[in-house]
């Protein structure tokens, strides 16, 4: 997501380890992409060469799902458990509840991070608009002062007595 910069747009490229283009977005302000991955190094690039004058502030988040570590962690606790089947069932229920809470908390953190990015972009737009309104208000005030001074001068010149009087 582009948070700040002229036009709020940027090009995005995502390349696979084989060098194939998986995603190519031209001049987008935001986007969400889901890609099935394979082993190797992926390359992603945010390209702003079409707008070399203005710089951009970018927010991006990389979320890796199903890395294979969760299944191993869930099985590690079972080797320490001894006792009845009832105890196993209770521990499995507790583990399932904890994993459910963990998943929901990570999704909440992800959504809050995304909302913070939206808020930051909107804040930058508001500050830019505020500066623009202040600038043009000052220009308008300057024009009004100049026009009023010219009007006072013109009115004074209308009522001046231009006849030369002899005394």
From TrEMBL:
Subcellular location: Endoplasmic reticulum membrane; Endoplasmic reticulum-Golgi intermediate compartment membrane; Golgi apparatus, cis-Golgi network membrane; Membrane
Top-level taxon of origin: Eukaryota
Membrane topology reported for the UniProt record: Single-pass type I membrane protein
Domain GOLD: start-end pairs: 1-64
Gene Ontology CC terms: endoplasmic reticulum membrane; endoplasmic reticulum-Golgi intermediate compartment membrane; Golgi apparatus
SUPFAM superfamilies: Supernatant protein factor (SPF), C-terminal domain
Main localization, broad class: endoplasmic reticulum
Annotated Pfam families: EMP24_GP25L
Membrane spanning stretches: 135-155
Keywords from the UniProt entry: Endoplasmic reticulum, Membrane, Signal, Transmembrane, Transmembrane helix
InterPro entries documented for this protein: Emp24-like, GOLD_dom, GOLD_dom_sf
Family: Belongs to the EMP24/GP25L family.
Name of the featured protein: Transmembrane emp24 domain-containing protein 5
Source organism of the structure: Tauraco erythrolophus
